[in-house]
Give the backbone structure.
Amino acid sequence: MNTVQSDMVTTGKTNDALVSFTAVKKSYDGIQYVVKDLNLDVARGEFLTMLGPSGSGKTTTLMMLGGFERPTLGHIMLDGKPVEKLPPEKRNIGFVFQNYALFPHMTVAENVAFPLRYRGVKGNEAQEKVKRALGRVSLEALGDRKPGQMSGGQQQRVALARALVFEPSLVLMDEPLGALDKQLRERMQIEIKHLQTSLGITMVYVTHDQSEALTMSDRIAVFHDGRIQQLADPKTLYNAPENRFVAGFIGENNTMPCSFVGREAGQAVVRMADGAILKAGGADPAGGKDGLTLSVRPENIMLAGEQVPPGANLFSGTATDVFFLGDHMRLSVEAFGGQILTARIPIASARAFTAGETVHLACMPAACRLLEG
């Protein structure tokens, strides 16, 4: 990670920002805010994803950036200039919608050329730009086809070519892969990321799909209740969630109630509901020692035995469910006074389990996180 991105992970601000949201709020009824006190910078050449459940404020934020909605309060800067009052066509932004928004009566080339009309680009110059844009998405030989003659993946590429044809400073993408099947969606994720990287363009991408965000993004802004809950690169977001919502929303996570006891050798010491003492990473709680949460991902829970490293948290539980899933075994265990945990045990180290038997497990303190909110 470069210095600019490293600074942005912790502050959300950079001197090389193409996009800046400052104290932005959005209300549709004048009472409830669907976006609250948004402060966010997007660096030039960055792929930033806005991730969150429906109603979290991510799409509204994208629409304000694109010019389809106006902020109620605050400012949005694009390339150092305020754009809150500019219409979409004046912002030099490419947009890719979930439904592609292609004109069915036009050919692929005509669809891609459409944004050039508003910019006064015609004749040979327009044809060259269309040809170049279609080449970028590997559709240069299909310019004479109609959208209805193409697959979903090809139509998505046409929409992307149309967004790129006028060489915008920024491309916004709103759930662009939502209509595709799983295999095609995963392939398109890689293609879009490769295209963004090779062209060096800035992309802001909206999705509710965690794996999609983790695969494609330089940074991810996790939205909930109109606010960014955490802003970080994918690895940090996955391994070091800052609160309960992020821990539960990004991937699969075991979350258990606990209380804070103190610190030992730089690690938090916590007491579980049944009195067991474990160690974890994370800052000291600011809001009190009780009502906290310990989180640990299923892949970080292992079978206790001779191969467990020194210093591991050791605990026991009762097996409740066992599932064979090819490369790993999914083991559900009741522990810590009635909490149901999931462990993902690699097949190489798994053995036969039966429901009701006692299972001895371990997890490293560095893989456990103490969370407040």
